[in-house]
Amino acid sequence: MKADTRTPAEIFASPIRYLIPLFQRPYVWNKADQWEPLWDDVRAVAEQVLNTKDSLYGGSPIPPHFLGAIVLEQQLTPTAFIPVRHVIDGQQRLTTLQILLDAAQLVAEQHGSAIDGKALEALVLNNRDLVQQPDEIFKVWPTDRDQDAFRAVMDNEREVTGELASSSIAAAHVYFMEEINEWADPDGDPDKCKRRITALTHALRSYLRLVVIDLEPGDNAQVIFETLNYRGTPLLAADLIKNMVFQLATAQNEDLEGLYKKYWKPFDSNHWRRAVRQGRLYRPYVDIFINYWLTMRRLRDIPADRVFTEFRDHIRTSELAAWEVMRDLAADAQVYAELEHLPWDSPEGTFYYRVINVMEASVVGPFLLWILRWPEKRMPIEQRLKALRAMESWLVRRMLCKLTTKNYNRIIVELLQALDRNGPEVAGDITEAFFARGTATAGYWPSDQEVIEAVQTVKVYKDLTRTRLRMVLEALEDDARGKWSEHEHCPRGCLTIEHVMPQSWGEHWDSGVADHPARQRRDHLVQTLGNLTLVNDRLNPKLSNRPWTDGEVEAQALSDPVPTIGKRTLLLKHATLKLNAEIVAAHPDTWTDEAITTRSAALGQRLTIIWPRP
């Protein structure tokens, strides 16, 4: 490698094209973290130029400001063509500098001297007489996703509208334009404005510095990229993987642009790069997918911080061509992307809602991807559904029995290994048998009796999250409606959990409960499943705590807010939900501790049918 310190004038003034390869990540710099600090530094240098005697004419020296480093790889170009270099590292910095130079050029063209405008134009555009293709006029050319926005903002005659206007590149250009205009013309004096623009032009051309590292023949661009970026810079694992597979494709003489458009382009979209919650943390959606994909492919647990390393090892050991790896990754990515759009009332959609969304069992992701990736001719639909039912039952039963989630990663990997050995044709049988033979605490599949006992004793309202408890009650509501109901599934995620006997039962429900043990027992019972139901809207707390029957309300002379309505009548208004219809039909006169215990046992029995085990 050869490293030299260069000014923007030295980097951009000659005819040159700095191409950002397809395998680089898109433009991601933002105002708070990069644009504002860069402008603050440039403005400070410009003010030094402005305030230093004779600095515009080679007089007193101005200390330069260093912007960082860029790594370039020279490309072979035919005689008479504009020289080309690939940007191996520093493309965010180089792109931002071009946007800043263009914004300054536009301000100079509008409010400065013609000389300043031309001096800055020479740093952003090549001579039109030298280009072979229209886009060759740009000295920096970004990766595929950013090309339309970059082309639009760098064209001073074009108004940036629509979707392009919301891009980061367009936002950066607007930001620098506004800041330069405000700084150059603080008090409406045209002559003063021109002087300030001249100072800014000199600062941009001559008083900024970049360390330019030119790779020499034999230098490994991929290794250099990984070394500079993987250890410290917040690149996505997908960015490093992209760089690696496209470098491999280059060595295999593949059509890079064709591969990018066919297989990789979606991964550079905002949808795939967005941060999504996984447990307590947020991770890029694409990195989570690749993490699941590698776990599924390599049949071992892949820590989040080893995704790139494991992918690199997978490439080396699989002996697949780059295009084959990208093909497989893209095919499974389509399956993964469809998970969020599964019909919510389908078996697969119900599994995704309950297990992934509500229970937040992201550890199951590789298993779900493995199950859904197979076509029906390889995995019969009954085997797919059997596998999903077994997994869901194992997870829910353990949740209800308050068993540990420790070692779930290891258990899922062992299941994937068993599935891989036996094939997709018997996936359901293998999944069910795998969990059924689990005897250790970490893998045990609770029996029917254990579930029923847990439902009667566990304070689920206190011990389960609201979303998980609601999911259990939703499943009971679906079961109560039956397969032939006009509305087979109740609404998801929007109903409210209601205590039948209120938590504050002492105000109107203390009849016959005098001693301390009985009160303790009731305090416990009101938090168990038998005392819980769903309602369409949250009840007014004053209504929710009222006695069970209208007669009891009258007897206690309650007048606020509705004088003659008891709790049973309130639930009757929500009787479109079968859970409430069952309660009010079976208990016209009283709702007691014994009623809660009896209902808990009955609901526990139904849960063993909803989530069965062999």
Uncertain residue segments: none
Spatial strand sequence of the major β-sheet: 1-6-3-4-2-5
What is the structural class? alpha/beta
What is the molecular shape?
A: elongated
Q: Write down the overall mean pLDDT.
A: 89
Total number of helices:
28
Using only C-alpha atoms, the radius of gyration works out to 33 Å
Largest beta sheet, briefly? Answer: 6 strands, mixed
Distance from first to last alpha carbon: 65 Å
Number of domains: 3
Molecular structure report:
- The chain has 28 helices and ten strands.
- The chain is of the alpha/beta class.
- The strands form three sheets. Strands 1-6-3-4-2-5 form a six-stranded mixed β-sheet. It has a two-stranded antiparallel ribbon with strand order 7-8. Strands 9-10 form a two-stranded antiparallel ribbon.
- β3 (65-75) and β4 form a beta hairpin.
- The protein has three domains: 2-229, no CATH class; 237-445, no CATH class; 450-610, no CATH class.
- 53% of the residues lie in helices and 8% in strands.
